[in-house]
Amino acid sequence: QLRLEESGGGLVQPGNSLRLSCAASGISLHNWAMGWLRQGPGKEREVVSCITRNSEITYYADSVKGRFTISRDNAKNTLYLQMNNLKPEDTATYYCATISTDYCSDEYDYWGQGTQVTVSS
Question: Which of 17, 19, 60, 83 is most buried, judged by most C-beta within 10 A?
Fold first, then answer.
């Protein structure tokens, strides 16, 4: 059974860090470009970051550039998102998703259930 499971979310104060993980089962992530997306309260879903299959290319939304780092460990079948200097506007449910193209695109195929990140003092 194919499954993507995010973890690592939580409640943190502004300026702190979190590391999200997306563990895959029933699917080999090395075959997929991968993305992190988020949806905050009352907001539309937005792309946070993506990474190609061999990690050659990464993309970041302007709002997270310089603070977030996407990475993957294909041997562990896991995708990561290191989030530093978190801001209240980063509060959202974060989702990982597979991308059906070889490059970063919006052609998402499989999604995880999401993990909640709340940044508040």
Answer: 83
Q: Specify whether the CB–CB gap between 72 and 78 falls below 8 A.
A: yes
The model's pLDDT over 60-86, given as tens digits with 9 standing for 90+, comes to: 999 999 999 999 999 999 999 999 999
pLDDT of residue 119: 98
In three-state secondary structure terms, 95 is strand
CA pair distance 118, 24, nearest whole angstrom: 24
Amino acid in position 119: V
To which residue do tokens 């563990």 refer? 23
∠ CA 6-10-15, nearest 5°, is: 120
Q: What whole-number distance in Å separates Cα of residue 57 and Cα of residue 75? A: 18
Residue owning tokens 């896991």? 78
Q: Answer for the pair 68, 80: CB distance below 8 angstroms, yes or no.
A: no
Does residue 48 sit in helix, strand or coil? strand
Amino acid of residue 86: L
Tokens at residue 106, please? 């919006």
Give strand ranges (E) for 52-107: 58-60, 68-73, 78-83, 92-99
